[in-house]
Amino acid sequence: MRIITRKISIVVRRILFVFRNFYYKNIFDVGRNTVFLGRVFYYHSQYIKIGKNCSINEGVFFNAGTNIIIHDNVAISAGVFLTSAGGYTKLQKNGVAKTYHDNKAVEIGKGSWIGANATILHGVKIGENCIVAAGSVVGSNVEDGTVVVGNPARVTSRVKADVTK
Length: 165
Description:
The protein is of the alpha/beta class. The chain has one domain (about 1-160): Hexapeptide repeat proteins (UDP N-Acetylglucosamine Acyltransferase, domain 1, 3 Solenoid). The protein has one helix at about 1-25, and strands at about 30, 35, 40-45, 50, 55, 60-65, 70, 75, 80-85, 85-90, 95-105, 105-110, 115, 120, 125, 130, 135-140, 145-150, 155-160. The strands form four sheets. Strands 2-5-8-13-16-18-19 form a seven-stranded mixed β-sheet. A five-stranded parallel β-sheet has the order 1-4-7-12-15, with helices on one face. It has a five-stranded parallel β-sheet with strand order 3-6-9-14-17, with no helix packed on it. It is globular and about 70 Å long. The N and C termini lie far apart (about 45 Å).
């Protein structure tokens, strides 16, 4: 009985995988050979563009106030939060703080890898062949071939090889 249950479970998971990939590829602008390895969450799917040969893992959240662009050969690990919507607060002359909302595009360059539970804030451009460590919060641009770690994310090293080959 266990063998039959296991076989049914495998078939059901495969059907869900195929259905999920079909669904996401029809609501996002997605390139060839990109796979969704689990459920993703999103606001405003029309702003999300994903290149070819990418992998998007379980629990990725796209908060798209404007464009979120993911170039070719990018791997995004589980639980990553990408937001192109944000805001800021200004202190008025009368001493009262006023909050403003703004939308700035997020872009992830070719061959980059985003570690689990990382947060990419609005207006950030991550260069090509970059590594964002797990749990990092990226609030400023990242140069090509850079490894960033922490909250706030800071440069720790450079990538020595072209990871896209």
